[in-house]
Amino acid sequence: MPSLDQIPVGTRGVILSITGEDVIAQRLMEMGVIDGEPFQLLRTAPLGDPLDVEIHGYRLSLRKTEAARVQVQIS
Amino acid sequence: MSHEPTTNPGKIIRLALLGNPNTGKTTLFNALTGLKHRVGNYPGVTVDIKKGSFTHQGAEFEILDIPGTYSLAPRSPDELISVELVLGLNHLEPKPDVLLVIADASNLERNLYLATQAFETGISVVLALSMMDLAEKAQIRVDAKSLSNQLGIPVVPIHSNKRIGLEELKQSLLEAAREKKTAALVPFPNELEDSSRKVLGILGESGSLFLARRLLLETDGFLSRNLLPLLGDGLKQAVEAERQSFASKGINPVSIEAKVRYGWIRETLSPCVSKPSVKPVTWTDKVDQLLTHRIWGMVFFFLIMFGMFQALFTLAKPLMDLIDEGKAALGGFLGDMMAEGMFRSLVVDGLLEGVGGVLVFLPQIAILFCLLAILEDCGYMARAAFLMDRVMAKCGLSGKSFIPMLSSVACAVPGVLATRVIEDRRDRLATILVAPLMSCSARLPVYTLMIGAFLTEGYPDWFPGLILFCMYLIGFILAPLGALLLKRTFLRGQGAPFLMELPTYKRPSFRMVWARVLDASWSFVRRAGTLIAASMVIVWAVLYFPTNHPQGGTFPEKIAEAKTPEEKDALEAEWKKSSYLGRVGVLIEPVVQPLGWDWRIGVATLASFPAREVVVGTLGILFEAGSGEGEEVEQKLREILPKITRTDDPSKPLFNIPVALSLMVFFALCSQCVSTLIVIKQETRSWFWPVFTFVYMTLLAYVAALLTYQIGMMI
After folding, report:
1. Element at B482 (helix H, strand E)
2. C-beta atoms surrounding A74 within 10 Å
3. CA atoms within 13 A on the CB side of B390
4. Which of B232, B278, B368, B532 could form a disulfide with B414 if both were Cys (CB 3.0 to 4.6 A apart)?
5. What letter would DSSP give residue B349?
6. What is the CATH number of the domain that holds A44?
7. Partner-chain residue, chosen from A21, A37, A50, that has the shortest CB–CB distance to B254
8. Which is nearest to B539 in space by CA: B453, B610, B633, B632?
């Protein structure tokens, strides 16, 4: 099961789960990163980090350290 | 105090405006209040919470602009105050009668998350839908009427800049204040609902379903720690017990809220919102192909930054010169009008310098904030943070710190003000504290004087430029290092994760930009201006008094009687030496001697506390190059300085290259700028941080200058 930081740019998929129960996990979920949600990894920043992800019809930018906690299923 | 929704027509209707960032919340606030607002003063808060008012059909409204947020789950003191204000738990403000929630129609799913939380507060809610045009472009159709039926509250599509829907919105607000409508509530699993009801029972009158759920569902205990003591004992145990109870029934408090809310939102929206099955390629997608491109994105970024920089220097310069000239002209005029003496000096050298010293920052502040507002309003600001995040992450900050840091190269005052875009408290503070290390334009006179006098003649053409570049490099290296150090020591701790929305690009609104410029300039003048002017007057006083000449009479009298300019210059220098500040300078000479300085450089440095560039004028007086300002003195100083000899050994020159370098390094790092310190005080709402900044920068400057001189003398 790959995490969001490991998949190639352009990949579409569905969020499976988020590791951890801390504030970061909660913030991610409040922003709509919840299991079952479809997403697409649009790009990484020119220097490789952070990521640009489309989810819930909007664009969310998050760092690889946070993305590593998001398990996804590639479709 | 409890405030029931009123039917009493004479009472002010209190509103709280809530919304996600990038929804046009501030534009709506400005459109409703017409720029008439003041900033609320809430202790311990570093964000501005604006308060404005307007009337509609004879009813008076007061509206609080709650800082943009994605959720009402507080995890920092700034977020806590927002929640307290919304729930009416802050003793400084009465409970709102209506919550006005603004939501971006092109992105309703995520925007309604916050709205569903507002529904549970028990306060009437009115929903304003912004960005209808963006939704239309993305082929998203929102049926406001059916949404209103689904949610059980008024839903009003608006376009603040075109003033569409504002009257209808005001009418809905008025009606919502008079007659409370019950909003749809997100149903949570029964186990949790039972617990919520129990906690709500204990909370009593000040409680709400929202607060009960919040206390039960939060995992970091921030709200419990900060709010429970206010709400009474007994509650804590009850919350703990209920938490265990539903946890034992298999409900995970971490994920339940987001899952249930988003699930409900999707279901509720499906009959009201139609979306294309395949998302069309939008203008934003195309622009971002370029602006976040691996190569072109960076090229455009640096072009934009370069343009900003040029504008800041070239556009602000003539305006600043104009202010300086106006100050000089007014000083000359008043000087001629008034009789020689202390009062004239107070007005011309003290007050006028103080007021001019405040005004001179305005062009830079106005220009920077105009550019920042354009970048922010069109959506590029988030891209800039996206592009620079990797670099800034290396020093413990986020991409949002880049522009404030860069702006500080022009001037730290607007730079510090620009840190308001940084939501994370620690990141913002770290950026504020290191921003003054960047070499600002006020250091240039010191650099050019020293380089011109000691490091130009007899050197290759490129050499002076290299030295100047090295001076700037000091700041570019030390500011990020300082930020890293602060984030590892004083400002350690887990901050908010870097989760940032990349908003849809749109045309910046002129009104919005204008409002930002006005706001930034006016709040600087009002909040920092008086303190800056006052401190300049104090420095004037300690340089003016005492006026007694050792051989009787006073210095001003003797200067008036002086026959030759040389005699006058000598008297001026002697006066400065015998002033209170001069005496301190003489007293601390042993402290500055290891830097290669004598008491004269020490006094000039002390006297430049109001602003670094003042050092040139004071050196001019002390080295008898004449008082006054501008290039004339600088030119003369450049000629005189190499000839000045040491006071203890007249056979040796006072200045040599190590001394010039140590003075330059000291000014590169010291915090001789009262305006920056006062703006830091205003932005951090505390005297601790400006004092901290002054102390650390002065120590750093001293040590660096000491090393420069001592190593320089060895070579």
Report:
1. helix B462-488
2. 12
3. 11
4. B368
5. I
6. 2.30.30.90
7. A21
8. B610
pLDDT digits 0-9 by tens, A19-75: 988 888 888 999 999 999 999 999 999 999 899 999 998 999 999 999 999 999 998
Q: Are strands B124-130 and B155-157 parallel, antiparallel or unpaired?
A: parallel
Q: How confident is the model at residue B628 (pLDDT cuts 50, 70, 90)?
A: low
| Other Cβ atoms within 10 Å of B429 Cβ, number | 23
Residue ranges of chain A whose CB lies within 8 Å of a chain B CB = 18, 21-32, 34-35, 37, 43, 45-50, 52, 56-63, 66
* Model confidence at B494: pLDDT above 90: no
Distance in Å, alpha carbon of B335 to nearest chain A alpha carbon: 59
Give the model's pLDDT for residue B4: 45
Contact B390 A47 (CB under 8 A): yes
Residue that is written with structure tokens 């790092």 in the block:
B669
Per-position b or e across B194-225, b if 16+ CB within 10 A of its CB: ebbebbbebbeeebbbbbbbbbbbbeeebbbe
Residues in chain A within 8 Å Cβ distance of B110: 31-32, 56-58
Cβ-based contacts of A18 with chain B (< 8 Å): 255
Q: What is the pLDDT of residues B419-442, one digit of tens each?
A: 988 888 889 999 999 999 998 888
In B, which residues are within 8 Å of A66 by CB distance? 497-499
- B253, B112 Cβ separation under 8 angstroms: no
**Element (DSSP H or E) covering residue B625:** none
Sheet holding B124-130, edge to edge: B37-40, B49-56, B59-65, B13-19, B98-104, B124-130, B155-157
pLDDT, tens digit, 9 for 90 and up, residues B240-256: 888 888 778 878 888 88
Record: contact B497-A26, CB cut-off 8 A: no
- Retrieve residue B368's tokens: 């920077």
Q: What is the pLDDT of residue B7?
A: 46
Asked if B153 and B125 count as a contact pair (C-beta separation under 8 A), the reply is yes
- Stated as kind and residue range, the H or E segment containing B273 is strand B273-274
Domain count, chain A: 1
Look at phi and psi of residue B373 and say left if phi exceeds 0, alpha if psi is from -120 to 50, else beta. Answer: alpha
CA distance B116 to B108: 12
Q: How far apart are the first and last CA of chain B?
A: 74
Residues of the domain holding A12: 4-74
pLDDT > 70? residue B642 = yes
